[in-house]
Specification:
Blueprint (H helix, E strand, L loop, with lengths): L1 H13 L4 H15 L3 H28 L3 H18 L5 H11 L4 H16 L6 H31 L1 H20 L4 H13 L3 H12 L5 H29 L9 H21 L17 H8 L1 H6 L8 H34 L5 H20 L10 H21 L3 H26 L8 H30 L1 H11 L1 H9 L4
Length: 498
């Protein structure tokens, strides 16, 4: 009976000229059933409310769903990170190769400098290769610090896709040069070109910001975190396989993994060119081209970066929020990257971990991060982003302390798993928060400056942490790091973001 009421109500709503028929039919139903007019009307109104609820649910789903472009960015970042992380397990063997084949070259000069640093901080000689890798990593981060805001600024002017393609081509060229790096100077040049081309990550985040709204941005940003987690799990495994089966007696044994990395990077170029659509329309681009020295300095000057000087024409309140978030991110990542780098020393020096043991540890933490970012972090409501970042910051405090006082492998695992849980939340949530500031034509600059501050922290943090690790010991270093992390945690908790 209710079915017929609903049916005739729809006819009435859509076809006004048969209203009399609907009225008569409804009256007949009322008479047969003994229902009052008000009861019939209630049934009709209830049907209308149900339709509104269904329509509202569809609207909410449309608003909160992840834009397909975010998945394309995920694929692009994953290809990039697989190629980037492949070199990590190969680096020690490559440095040994250059040590033997680049006698009297640039390797000898840099090796002497590392040896002086090793003697100064009191690190054993067997860790020179790790310090060497750290020096190359700091150089790479410094280059990212310089290029990220500049690339982001250019993408605000010329569009995301062309700048992203240029970055991807530069990365591909760096791997091609690596394949033919007969001497250490060519290898350094390859890393230099790669570092200068790493503005792609901040641009990828800008693309996600372009195509996402406030409700769906957290989900989309979590995809970036998943790409990083998977990249740092699978990439080193691929590199380890190449390292294990390579004939290191051959003069250019690293040619094959370098070509494989170049192929992944080239595939990324083709993928971006064919499938990624421009996310920043011409009408929404910045009209101001960077043509003055003073404006260019805003993108590379450290004081200007902390002030977010490159971001123009936004409210004082938004500028204050950007500066506060930037400072929290820098302090956090400065301390965080110190543990991330020196924990390798700890595993070898205190727990006698082999390379396989270390790989198991990083595989465990990578899986924890990927699971959390793919499930919990992606489903965080918009209003819970800041509190989730605060919780993540609180978690890393005991993580540092547990790692510092650990005397057994099981306790070390507990500390590192806490470390992974914290990492899954903090960076993704802070990136989501920072991405809401600025107009469409400023998103690339905002995220570029943010990324640049992180790169600066990663360049300086490992150096300071290495000095502390070998000067005052691992326990004091990590406990002090945990205590100091209270500062960005409280800052984040007290922030009243606009």
């Amino acid at each position: 009976m209710l079915y017929f009421c609903n049916f005739f109500f729809k006819l009435f709503y859509l076809h006004h000229h048969i209203s009399n028929m609907a009225y008569n039919t409804t009256s007949a139903i009322k008479k047969r059933s003994g229902l009052s007019s008000s009861a019939v009307n209630e049934n009709l109104n209830g049907s209308l409310s149900s339709e509104k609820v269904i329509q509202s649910s569809k609207t909410i789903h449309e608003i909160t769903r992840t834009h397909p472009t975010a998945y394309l960015i995920f694929v692009s970042l994953l290809l990039d990170l697989l190629a980037f992380t492949m070199i990590l397990p190969l680096l020690p063997s490559m440095l040994e190769y250059y040590k033997q084949h680049d006698v009297g070259g640039y390797y000898g000069y840099l090796s002497d400098s590392i040896s002086n640093f090793q003697e100064w901080v009191g690190a054993p000689k067997r860790f020179n290769s790790v310090l060497f890798g750290g020096a190359l990593g700091s150089m790479f981060s410094m280059l990212q610090f310089i290029v990220s805001p500049i690339a982001g600024g250019f993408s605000d002017i010329y569009g995301r896709k062309p700048v992203l393609i240029i970055c991807a081509i530069g990365i591909t060229a760096s791997y091609g040069l690596w394949a033919y790096s007969h001497n250490f100077m060519l290898f350094i040049l390859a890393r230099f070109i790669g570092g200068l081309s790493k503005g792609n990550i901040s641009i990828c985040m800008a693309v996600i910001t372009d195509v996402s709204n406030q409700q769906s941005r957290g989900k989309a940003m979590a995809l970036v975190g998943i790409a990083f987690s998977l990249g740092f799990i699978v990439g080193p495994m691929i590199g380890a396989l190449f390292s294990r089966f390579a004939d290191k007696a051959h003069s250019q044994w690293f040619w094959l993994p370098a070509v494989f990395a170049m192929s992944l990077a080239l595939l990324d170029v083709v993928f971006i060119a064919l499938y990624l659509k421009e996310s920043l329309p011409t009408s929404k681009r910045s009209k101001k081209i960077i043509n003055t020295l003073s404006h260019a300095v805003d993108h590379i000057s450290i004081p200007a970066l902390f002030r977010f000087s490159a971001v123009k024409n936004i409210s004082k309140r938004d500028v204050a929020s950007l500066r506060s978030l930037g400072m929290v991110y820098f302090i956090y990542l400065f301390i965080y990257s110190g543990l991330e780098f020196t924990v390798t020393f700890l595993m070898y020096h205190k727990f006698n971990y082999t390379s396989i043991d270390q790989a198991k540890m990083f595989l465990t933490t990578g899986i924890v991060m990927a699971i959390l970012q793919g499930s919990v972090v992606r489903r965080l409501p918009q209003g819970r982003t800041q509190i989730s970042a605060v919780i993540g910051l609180y978690l890393i405090i005991p993580a540092f302390i547990i790692v510092g006082v650990a005397e057994s492998s099981s306790v070390l695992y507990v500390g590192m798993i806490l470390f992974a849980i914290s990492t899954a939340f903090v960076v993704t949530c802070m990136t989501t928060l920072i991405s809401k500031y600025g107009d469409f034509h400023q998103k690339g600059t905002v995220l570029g400056v943010f990324r640049s501050l992180g790169a600066l922290a990663r360049a300086l943090g490992p150096v300071v942490a290495s000095i502390a690790f070998w000067s005052i010991g691992s326990k004091v270093t990590y406990i002090a790091g945990g205590v100091l992390l209270v500062i960005p945690t409280l800052m984040m908790q007290r922030l009243k973001l606009s």
